[in-house]
Design a protein that fits this description.
1 helix
Length: about 210
């Protein structure tokens, strides 16, 4: 049985009966399989029978009440390749969503993008450049785990990232947090959860420490 996590804080966790999900962009007949290795983690895998790598999906706790303001945190613990696209989702409905995702174009993984979605059509409305924190002093990207959180407060979307065992930064940390204004009309209450995209056949992504409010 697939289970998911809804947490008021990371210390007070309730386990629900399953995950709900929706496809943002399909790629032929490709699909993903979501399982829960532990009570606070989710692994999403692409079967080897998939043909492409452009499937994008969002996941949220089954039975979740639609959110106006919401928060989701996740640790990017294991990924099969750097091209796997991690992220979060807000205001998810049957046709719409707002997402924050790691940039995968041109291998510029220090950039995170915010989009709004209408069916499979997506429009970028913000871009967060985290080059100052995502590289080690010696060069190269910081190794996993990465932890990210996003929250919405009315029309303000805020993103932050840090690298455990670092302490969690504040939502106003000048180095690790960024904010943007969500365009008018895209803050209708909806579901809040996880984003997974661009898994090639046989690849997978594991989130741990999942908390959705």
């Amino acid at each position: 049985m697939i289970r998911s996590v809804l947490a008021l804080t990371t210390a007070a966790v309730s386990v629900l009966a399953g995950l709900s999900s929706r496809t943002l962009t399909a790629d032929g007949a490709d699909t993903y399989v979501a399982t829960q290795p532990t009570r606070t983690s989710v692994t999403v895998s692409a079967p080897v029978t998939n043909a492409g790598g452009n499937l994008r999906r969002v996941y949220w706790p089954a039975g979740q009440v639609a959110h106006a303001d919401g928060r989701v945190c996740e640790t990017i613990a294991i990924r099969s390749a750097e091209t796997v696209q991690e992220g979060t989702a807000h205001y998810v409905s049957s046709t719409r969503a707002v997402t924050v995702t790691k940039n995968v174009w041109a291998s510029a993984y220090w950039v995170w993008n915010a989009h709004y979605w209408d069916g499979p059509t997506f429009v970028q409305f913000a871009q967060f450049d985290l080059v100052s924190v995502m590289f080690t002093p010696g060069g190269g990207y910081r190794p996993l785990p990465w932890r990210i959180c996003t929250r919405t407060v009315r029309s303000t979307l805020t993103f932050k990232i840090w690298f455990p065992p670092e302490a969690e930064p504040s939502w106003t940390d000048p180095a690790r947090a960024r904010s943007a204004t969500i365009p008018v009309g895209w803050t209708v209450p909806g579901q809040v959860g996880l984003y997974v995209g661009h898994l090639q056949p046989g690849q997978s992504l594991t989130y741990t420490g999942v908390a959705v409010v």
